[in-house]
Specification:
Structural class: alpha+beta
């Protein structure tokens, strides 16, 4: 409690105070202008480095929009500029909207998070009886991802023809053919199939297509005036074109059938203006009850008692001691990313129209300019290596990859086929010679898995090796990137 005290100051002192405040405002304004110029310069340079035709950026800090603008071209053929109203395909950033549509059904009492999905999909395989709705939301169901090459290993032909139109019933029955890669709730593995099924489930229990649920219950109330489901037929004002680099040449995105561009795993058109309205809704915890938002941001529980840092359509981690919620998306010549840092009330959204774009790099660079303490620090300093056997195994994997002798039995639950991984690693490493040095620079646990980062030095090149091991010792991640 405090007492209000009125102080009568001489006019001269008041004048000095006003002048000081004006000077402070001017200094603050100049600093903000300088910051925005630095951000815009960085975005331009990164676009050039990555060869991205068009980028839209939205930055919010507190209740202030720092930046909402486009860079480059939304359509290269027409030389149409990108702006804050340009519509980009969402990719998997759309999953957070599907999660909200699902939670609306929970709040309406139409289903429960821990209901088995066979309660609604009564013709599903017997192995699905232990899969719950929560498992689908958190990617812990064990159902293979229909986009993964590895998901087709037990099938005679690709599961889904991306140029064929399917009904929801046909997609559901196709999903039944996918192998169950692990017992539900025991692991985490990203699965677009789970969110495709959630969209079908929303339609089944609500009687409405999930896109109509979003239009009426989310987009409309939040003022997301241009957000919508992808449509090839409709006239969509401000629609960007998606691109890809093929043999170093810019090409249009590949065509996908209309029905596969409406599924709930990420088939939205969103602009920066829409995403800023979404951010306002997230800050206000609009649309849903507080307890529903709490569920959305809760890390996925695993059978072991540990958790994985993924909620419902969000990666849930921490930065500077406070929650950090983020997610990316990739589809049809578009890459997207939203990152929310609660420690600084900062949100950064980046939308790109190139399949090979790296929107995370844009976000990380922008955040480093605004608040360096929030920016993720890429480990480069060696740390104590208390697991020499793992490092020895990492070295063996590198040598085997270089010589083309990786063994499939050592790998598990990859995001692509083992053959594709082995071929790519062999092509990268074969010309480099023997590694001169392997240094551990990072280690952390992801649920029940152990993730390691190594600096690998070759005679004329340095690479970063990301190695992730399952509890059974098999390799889940074996990624190499330039350093």
């Amino acid at each position: 409690m405090f007492m209000k005290v009125t102080v009568w100051a001489p006019l001269a002192l008041l004048a000095i105070g006003v002048q000081a405040a004006a000077a402070a405002d001017a200094t603050s304004g100049e600093a903000e202008t300088t910051l925005l110029r630095r951000i815009e310069t960085f975005v331009g340079e990164e676009m050039q480095r990555e060869r991205v035709p068009g980028v839209a950026v939205g930055i919010v800090r507190g209740d202030q929009v720092l930046l909402a603008r486009g860079f480059g071209e939304a359509n290269v053929e027409l030389h149409a500029p990108t702006d804050q109203h340009t519509l980009f395909q969402s990719g998997s950033v759309g999953k957070q909207f599907t999660a909200v549509a699902l939670m609306l059904q929970v709040e309406a009492g139409r289903l429960k998070l821990d209901d088995p999905i066979t309660q609604y999909f009564t013709d599903a395989p017997p192995s699905w009886r232990r899969i719950t709705i929560r498992h689908l939301l958190t990617h812990t169901s064990g159902i293979a991802d229909y986009e993964d090459d590895s998901s087709d290993a037990q099938l005679d032909a690709p599961l889904i023809d991306l140029r064929h139109d399917y009904s929801e019933e046909e997609l559901r029955r196709l999903a039944y053919r996918l192998p169950l890669q692990f017992e539900p709730g025991t692991r985490w593995k990203y699965s677009n199939t789970g969110y495709l099924l959630l969209g079908i489930l929303i339609h089944q229990v609500s009687g409405q297509f999930y896109g109509d649920v979003l239009k009426e219950r989310v987009f409309g109330p939040l003022g997301m005036s241009s957000a919508r489901i992808i449509s090839e037929a409709d006239i969509v004002e401000g629609r960007a074109a998606g691109y890809r680099l093929l043999e170093d040449a810019l090409k249009n995105q590949e065509w996908t059938s209309p029905s596969l561009n409406t599924t709930a795993d990420g088939s939205l058109y969103l602009s920066i203006t829409d995403m800023l309205a979404w951010d306002r809704g997230l800050r206000a915890q609009a649309i849903l009850r507080p307890e529903s938002w709490a569920q959305i941001y809760t890390p996925a529980p695993l059978a072991s008692g540990k958790t994985y840092p993924y909620g419902f359509g969000w990666e849930v981690e921490s930065a500077r001691g406070a929650p950090w919620y983020h997610h990316g998306g990739s589809w049809q010549g578009f890459r997207t990313y939203i990152s929310r840092y609660l420690a600084d009330e900062l949100t950064v959204v980046v939308l790109c129209n190139l399949a090979q774009a790296e929107p995370e790099r844009f976000v990380d660079g922008i955040v480093a300019l605004i608040d360096p303490q929030l920016a993720p620090i890429e480990p480069r300093t060696p740390i104590a290596d208390r697991e020499p056997a793992v490092t020895a195994r990492a070295r063996t994997l590198l040598v085997d990859a270089q010589s083309g002798h990786l063994q499939a039995a050592q790998f598990s639950y990859l995001a692509s086929s083992f053959e594709a991984l082995a071929h790519a690693r062999h092509e990268l490493l074969a010309p480099l010679g023997a590694p001169k040095r392997l240094r551990l620079v990072g280690r952390r646990e992801l649920g029940d898995d152990r993730a390691y980062a190594y600096e690998v030095t070759y005679p004329d090149r340095t690479l970063r090796l990301d190695l992730e091991l399952r509890p059974d010792g098999r390799v889940a991640v074996f990624d190499l990137t330039p350093w």
